[in-house]
Design brief:
The structure is a single chain. The protein is mainly alpha-helical. It folds into 2 domains: 317 residues, Up-down Bundle (Sodium/glucose cotransporter), CATH 1.20.1730.10; 82 residues, no CATH class. It has 23 helices and no strands. Helix 1 packs across helix 9, helix 3 runs antiparallel to helix 12 and helix 12 crosses helix 15. The longest helix is centred in the first third of the chain and has 53 residues. One of its GO terms (molecular function) is symporter activity. It is a multi-pass membrane protein. One of its GO terms (cellular component) is plasma membrane. Its main location: membrane.
Length: 555
């Protein structure tokens, strides 16, 4: 990169990190650290949701994945993202918000019991630290591909990036994270638009891309134009495109509920209205950026046909940056990638440390300490969480594409846990059903993982364990087990989340911090909400738009 590129990178990313340290001074209490004092407006939360949802691993791996597998992955960032956000912000998280909970796992103790709360926290820590590993590996690929750094230089810079991110996150908590994310989202959008325009012009535009794809086939004779059409693309197993869409949709549905990096933001909203509008705004920003990133992978079929499935498709994004970006523009794109990494680092670090402190440490290990003590533990836990991401690198490098590594882990624990949250809010399954459903779904997920990755278990049908069937089957197994528990122990005969039920029996820091939260607001307005500001209408429009994108524009 040129000196101008380096100046842009250091000025943009350095300013954001400095701003994070500045904001950290205002964090005084656990309510400030964990939930931003429940004072965060919709537009700041929406930008933060965008920045957290799109990380550097998406930018690097998505282009490579689309190069090999076509456009179907946009389901995760359009239809799945929108439906998951609406489900979380309109149905699931408001229950947690009204209950005064600090974490999504905390709710599960009230609904199902202490063991489920702890297991949920552990599953989320495993789930999101694996995502950290993906981001760390994608930064490594980018530094090698774009900057041509040596391995030692790459890992040194990555460790420094993690240290600086951890520093302002540990000090400032959610307030620092959200507002630095908001700034980083602007840098990310500028970088994403820049490289998309460069690749678009290099490919000759839409008409030229369509023409070249129509005239070419892959090594197996499939027309490359199918890469643009979800309903026509055939993978190596000739999987039904509807099944693939269902699989990605389940991933997206669970993302906003099981993933505390998002529920933490929603629970920090200044009102329920802000919570709902923030998720819709965040999804509206996510869709065009991720569609553009995916399209770059398909354009790569025209521009660089030599990037085959086993020759480094994850190197496609760095290749585009090197080949098609002029000085200055390359620095902006690198700054955007680093901003994406920082925004997700701080989000995962703060969210998972909250889970560790409230749902494991304060609940089981050290129950009667001061707020100062628990905030100190949370800050140290943030550093430990960020370092855990490095442990997943050996597993990730086994796969041809990072998204494949991530996708194979989801059905094991995350999908059963999402099913438990969903049934807990929407039905009156008994408390015992939580543990029964989680054990059944997780055992099924583990056998499926072993069957897919290590040993072919002949007694297990491929229809149950194959990578796309695993998602709906995991939900079905968990649901059936929970309903069976309801037949044995009976359905709940009263609302589990009554005000009385939500009070902790023992007066300690966990209960005191919940009592210190500001009162719940339905809207931030002093007057009745006008119909044109009703989030229900915008949710319906966004869901309809996402359906059209998948089953109309790209089908």
């Amino acid at each position: 990169m040129s000196w101008l590129d380096w100046v842009i990178v250091f000025v943009l990313n350095g300013s954001v990190i400095g701003f994070g340290f500045y904001l950290a001074r205002s964090t005084k209490s656990s309510s400030d650290w964990f939930l931003g004092g429940r004072s965060l407006p919709w537009w700041g939360l929406g930008l933060s949701i965008f920045a957290t949802s799109i990380d550097n691993a998406d930018a690097v791996s998505l282009t490579g994945y689309a190069y090999n597998h076509g456009m179907h992955i946009i389901t995760a960032f359009t239809l799945a993202s929108v439906c998951g956000a609406v489900l979380a912000s309109f149905l699931v998280v408001p229950v947690l918000y009204r209950g005064g909970f600090f974490t999504n796992a905390e709710y599960l103790e009230t609904r199902y019991g202490k063991s489920i709360r702890t297991i949920s926290a552990l599953i989320q820590i495993q789930y999101r630290t694996s995502m950290l590993g993906l981001m760390i590996w994608s930064i490594y690929l980018m530094l090698q591909g774009i900057l041509e750094f040596s391995p030692i230089q790459c890992w040194t810079l990555i460790v420094l990036l993690v240290i600086f991110t951890a520093a302002y996150t540990t000090w400032g908590g959610l307030t620092s994270v959200v507002w630095t994310d908001a700034l980083q989202s602007l840098i990310m959008m500028a970088g994403g638009i820049t490289i998309f325009c460069a690749v678009w012009m290099a490919s000759g535009g839409w008409s030229a891309t369509i023409e070249k794809l129509s005239q070419s086939t892959d090594a197996k004779g499939q027309p490359l134009i199918n890469w643009l059409h979800i309903g026509q693309f055939q993978d190596s197993q000739s999987t039904s495109p509807y099944l693939i869409v269902i699989g990605w949709t389940i991933v997206g549905l669970g993302y906003y509920t099981v993933n505390h990096t998002q529920t933490m933001r929603l629970m920090g909203a200044r009102s329920l209205w802000d919570m709902k509008i923030a998720t819709l705004f965040g999804c509206l920003l996510i869709m065009p950026i991720m569609i553009g990133t995916t399209l770059m992978g398909v354009m790569g079929r025209v521009l660089v046909p030599e990037f085959t499935e086993h020759s480094g498709a994850d190197q496609l994004f760095p290749y585009f940056a090197n080949q098609f970006l002029a000085p200055g523009f390359k620095g902006l794109v690198v700054a955007g990638i680093l901003s994406a990494a920082i925004s997700t680092f701080d989000s995962i670090g703060s969210a998972l440390s909250a889970l560790f402190t409230r749902d494991i440490y304060a609940r089981w290990i050290c129950k009667d300490q001061t707020e100062k003590h628990y905030l100190a533990v949370t800050r140290w836990a943030t550093i430990g969480i960020l370092l855990m991401g490095f442990l997943y690198i050996p597993f990730i490098v086994r796969y041809d594409n990072m998204i494949q590594a991530f996708r194979t882990l989801i059905p094991i624990f995350v999908t059963p846990l999402f099913t438990i949250y969903l049934l807990g809010v929407l039905t009156q399954v008994p408390r015992q059903s939580g543990l029964v459903g989680l054990i059944a779904g997780s055992v099924f997920g583990l056998f499926g993982f072993i069957d897919r990755e290590f040993v072919d278990l002949e007694w297990l049908s491929p229809l149950l364990t194959e990578k796309w069937y695993a998602f709906p089957c995991s939900m079905i197994v968990t649901t059936v087990a929970m309903f069976a528990a309801a037949l044995k122990w009976g359905w709940l005969k009263k609302e589990i989340l009554s005000e009385k039920d939500m009070k902790l029996s023992k007066h300690n820091w966990l209960s005191e911090s919940r009592e210190s939260l500001p009162r719940i607001k339905d809207t931030p307005f002093s007057k009745p909400l006008p119909q044109y500001l009703n989030p229900n209408w915008y949710a319906i429009l966004l869901v309809m738009l996402s359906f059209w994108i998948i089953f109309g524009l790209f089908w």
